[in-house]
Amino acid sequence: MARAQPRAKRSARVSARSKRRAGPRDRSTAGKGHMPIDLYYWPTPNGWKVSIMLEECGLPYRVVPVNIARGDQFKPAFLKISPNNRMPAIVDPDGPGGRPIAVFESGAILQYLGRKTGKFYPAGERARVEVDQWLFWQMANLGPKAGEANHFRRYAAAEKQKYATARFVDEVNRLYGVMDRRLRDRPFLAGRYSIADMACVGWIRLAERQGETFAGFPRLTRWLARVRARPAVQRGIHVRVEEASRVDVNDPKVRAVLFGQRTR
Fold first, then answer.
1. Residues 83, 254, 45, 184: is their CA dihedral positive or negative?
2. φ, ψ of residue 220 in degrees (nearest 5)
3. pLDDT tens digits, 195-230
4. Protein fold of 7-120+235-259
5. How many CB atoms sit inside 10 A of residue 152's CB?
6. How far is CA 210 from the centre of its chain?
7. Closest listed residue to residue 149, CA positions, set 134, 165, 162
8. Most buried of the four, 106, 165, 176, 234, by CB within 10 Å?
9. Sequence-distant (≥ 6) Cβ neighbours of residue 82 within 8 angstroms
10. Closest to 48 (Cα-Cα) out of 205, 199, 193, 206
11. The dihedral sign for the CA sequence 59, 61, 67, 71
12. Would you say residue 50 has pLDDT above 50?
């Protein structure tokens, strides 16, 4: 595994590498002096959605770490970009009409980048509805339920949270079954590989943390292998931030930032 780079060097390397990969099909976005997109990021399933999409599209980008364990997400400068104090978010200096645009919420970012590049998000209404259904399914179901299962299994006092743990582990199992049935007659969630698959892969690869084993889900297992085999997915998932490896979630101050927030 590549060693994590300091922020400035990492940003330059990601941008330069993306430009090198850009071929003739990418000239409309990566060529002609296209400026890198700022990706406000922390290595989590939600952050990976956007880094994967940027890698898949060959768009140059710079990683701006948002240390959620330290509270960077509550800083005024970041709240101007992401008012829900959550990463990921992007700032595209070459937005609509050639003017910068900030986008928060991972699903909205995926749709925006899909429209910008014409990739992985079809223009036809029927095909787009297929993608949107499964993208929103992930946003409303898989992500929240998998996140809660992970939280109660790893961070809560188990003897006091048996009901909550069982509730979310069971729901994750149900959702895995939904995906497995969906994949019965198609290789990807919307038929062709799309932003819906990118939205799900980061959560599914962490199945063990959610109390899941893939037992009884052969189609989902094959889907995961198929998606993870894509070079851009591997690059996107392995965009690292050195600070993240030093976070101690048992530190009361860290837990207060991550889990104890109320309105400000």
1. negative
2. -65, -40
3. 999 999 999 999 999 999 999 999 999 999 999 999
4. Glutaredoxin (3.40.30)
5. 22
6. 17
7. 165
8. 106
9. 40, 73, 89, 102, 104
10. 199
11. negative
12. yes
Strand order across the 61-65 sheet: 61-65, 37-41, 89-92, 101-104
DSSP one-letter string for 213-228: --TT-HHHHHHHHHHH
In the structure encoding, which two tokens stand for residue 85, read together? 């104090």
What is 125-229's CATH number, 3.40.50.20, 1.10.8.60, 1.20.1050.10, 3.40.640.10? Answer: 1.20.1050.10
The full set of domain ranges for the chain reads 7-120+235-259, 125-229
DSSP string over 155-214: TS-GGG-HHHHHHHHHHHHHHHHHHHHHGGG-SBTBBB--HHHHHHHHHHTTGGGGT---
| Nearest partner of 240 among 12, 41, 16, judged by Cα | 41
CA–CA dist 253, 43 (Å, integer): 20
For 171, the token pair is 């729901």
Percent of the chain with pLDDT over 70: 87
